[in-house]
Fold each of these.
Amino acid sequence: MIVDGIVYPICKAPEPFKYLADRNIRPVNKNDIHIGEIMNKTTFMAKPGQVERKWYVVDATDVPLGRLSAVVASVLRGKNKPTFTPHTDTGDFVIVINAEKVKLTGKKATDKIYYTHSNHPGGLKQISAGELRSKNAVRLIEKSVKGMLPHNTLGRAQGMKLKVFVGAEHTHAAQQPEVLDISGLI
């Protein structure tokens, strides 16, 4: 086509529509291509029955408590997977060993205080992080990790996949857990 001395090529839609023929989609008009029929515009959402769960072992020896808790909470939620879905429990099981050897940096062993209340007058109790580590290291790590999970039903279900042990032995050898090296993740 020539307009004002300029030659414009005439563009036609390709006749065979090869990319549509594979899916047996016929456009209404030759020049009419329906993008919605070609591309899938939905985001993948994992369903609870489709999730494959793994077991990981984490050694807490000389690892700062907050950094350990952040990595463990992320794996419990499933944020390390490409199929992460915020409203579905897609996380894996995590076994933490050597809980009594977790590191409390700075003056947290003496200055960080955990409070509990019995809901009776005068029922406020307090314990420092250092005392809690020596008396019940399992509770120290569980409290730290669960504080980084969602505070709802989903977060409680994700927190139940955390298994913490004092010492290097654990009772989940039958699940064949993989060792999770968190030195590159913190």
Note: The mean pLDDT is 87.
Amino acid sequence: MADGESSVGYPSTGAFAIETRGLNLWYGDFQALFDVDLGVKKGIITSMIGPSGCGKTTVLRTCNRIIERLGYVRTTGSVYVLGHDIFGDDVEIVQVRKQVGMVFQRPNPLPISVRDNVLFGFRLHEARLRKVARAEEDEVLESALRQVLLWDAVKDRLDRPATGLSLEEQQKLCIARLLPVKPEVLLMDEPCSALDPAGTEAVEEMIWQLRGDYTILIVTHNMAQARRASDECVFMLLGRIVEHGRTEELFLAPEHTETADYIEGRYG
């Protein structure tokens, strides 16, 4: 997918979990990203804001190569995740997606039990390499559910269908499903957009719980959520990054007029 210059001359630095350098992307003839330079620091929560269609989700989907599902997509530039050029010839897409988990706008639990949802990826990756005892599976299951603050709510319903959970619980479950394969980066595309205020608060609490153990990049249209639930914030407009800084500073004293106009609701 990427053109030949994707890994030329851009060494990755250790401070960032994700780095893009000069990233351009086209959907057919339409250019969606323009020279995107982004550095997402390890172990913190970075939010991305901007009007619909500005390229936020495109950046997210490029970082674990989901974008490749569309055969008419073309990129130039570099994307480094955990120090590796993810478009390099020696990089396996399975390993990229193992290290970089993705959470979507609406929960997408598999139509199987809570237990089997959480263990799905673990069994896929581990069972083909070695025999896994039931006791180990139980430990992995409980650990993942505790990390997303869901264990107490579902510990007596582990063998019931996951589709019977509330939307908030389903979204937490989808995040728990990523954790047993030990990703280092979690990409979240408006993870609270389908939730009510109570569910949103619960998921935000869970995201803060994961902070530090994981690098989290979250797309949101909710200005209050971006301000509450991130350490740094990126403002995008028309396929370009306009501003990137500490969240509180960006909201209180933005450097660019476009940023101020957006967060104050004058457009978007």
Note: The CA atoms of residues 24 and 33 lie 5 Å apart.
